[in-house]
Here is the input.
Amino acid sequence: MTMPNFLIIGAAKAGTTALYEYLKQHPQVYMSHEKEPKFFALEGEKLDFRGPHDQENINRTAITDIEAYRKLFQGVSNEIAIGEASPLYLYSPKAPGRIKNYIPDAKMIAILRNPVDRAYSGYMMHLGLGWETTNDFTQALLEEEMRIRNNWGWGHYVNVGFYYMQLKRYFDTFNPDQIKVYLYEDLNANPIVMLQDIFQFLNVDQSFIPDIAIKHNISGIPKNNFLGALINSVKPLNPILKQVFPSRLRQNLKKQVLVKPQLSMDVRKQLIEVYREDILNLQDLIHRDLSGWMK
Here is the structure.
């Protein structure tokens, strides 16, 4: 049975949803209908994540069985590039070895965002969803190690951002030619150029131009409780609501009703120092200037 030949491995809140949606439009690309199966991070594990809403989310939706995972690709016909997107793969220490075991020649795509902005965006997303237990980002950071010890499936805001350590596992496991690393800035500045570079990497038609008008996975907090309840009720997995509120309408609605307070400069400076060494090492690994992340 068919298995993927490429993976979007992360990072979370760095544009992976947009990348998944844009690649899915290409006629020579097949993306699994479930965006984040998380198989290579959680294969064979009995899921018992204990954070708020983990039971109805990661514990219920993650795929841990190889046969169930293969079924995600049973609709493949004549597509050249077959993939899925699970940002957990970059963060997971176990994922590179499992990928190597099942699909050793697979290509991997990573997109990285300033880790401070990524952490805050992740917090704002969970706050907007109503998952967060604190309205104070600083307090959430103070609770992070406790959350990890208590096996929360989310809320690892700082730890997810150590990209050098995470990417190095992949560079140590695979031929560097199998790995493409982009920045969130690339996606924002010139998404078509970035996508065409990915098409070349995947050996599909580079001339295809996807529709990039929709902004995906917008995070923030609702302007009031009623709007928040409305946004959170319109789940893409609900087939009825999906017809009533198609993707373009959902995202436009989010842009109208979500606000994102600015991160305080003091917290930003503190987090930059937390990440400084990792960012400097990452620059050397991926040969990109990341000095802007440390300002």
Summary: The chain has 16 helices and seven strands. The domain at 6-220+260-294 is CATH 3.40.50.300 (Rossmann fold). The first strand starts at residue 6 and ends at 10. The chain has a mean pLDDT of 91.
